[in-house]
Predict the 3D structure of the following.
Amino acid sequence: MDIDITVDGDIPAAQLEDARSRLTALERYVDSDSSPVAARLTLRDRPGHGDRRRERFVADASVPFDGRVLAAHATAPTPAEATDAVVTRLRRQLRRIVDADVAVRNDPRTIRKAIADFDQARRPSPARRRKPPEEREIVSRRTYAPGPEPTLSAIVDLLEDAEHFHLFVHVRTNEDVVVFWRDDGRIGLLFPRGSALGDEDDVVVGMPSRYTEPLTLAAARSEMDLLDHRFLYYIDADDGRGRVLYLRTDGDYGLVEPE
């Protein structure tokens, strides 16, 4: 697959090659034998818009497929993270075109088999760098969820993107909720207390949030500092939206926010 990269700003050559290799992950979804494929990626460095803790780098990517052009946009603290985000979004678009039969895609039997197959092939999580809690920075990013979706579609996104958790808006209740891998190998669904999603138990293990009231980011961080969770799902006290604070492999905190 031919890849064209345009750069606006001072981005090292090694990081550009890394971005190119990440974009080639889309090649297996595209039939390059029937027509030449030119994936395009534009990376922009916005130094005046923040530092590494903010969404300084902008990525725009596109790929032609089946007579149309699929496109994705993302911002992130590093070129690699911005590229990963647009690749994830393009991959999801490609998969949804290829797997156009939504009924089959969301059949619980199909999902159960996919979970079992994925769990057998799942690799151990990479080792996390340990930092003292007081030295951990918070790096924000937006959820990869494309919009409101049902539980089964969110599970497919969790599997396709090889995530440990997936924050999304549930189509039934319009609530920010999370599907995630439990320690026992099953998939859990976290939702606010009192949610109607308590009856979602066909494929997932339904789990109401442990918190009876919304939390501030400072309170969520304090709990993470103290208990060292893998991640913490909470409803934010400022806007009532769901968020996930998690421990990144570099030892800092990541904060996933809704679109």
User: Anything to note?
Assistant: The chain is about 25% helix and 30% strand. The first strand starts at residue 2 and ends at 8. Confidence is low (pLDDT under 50) at residues 101-105.
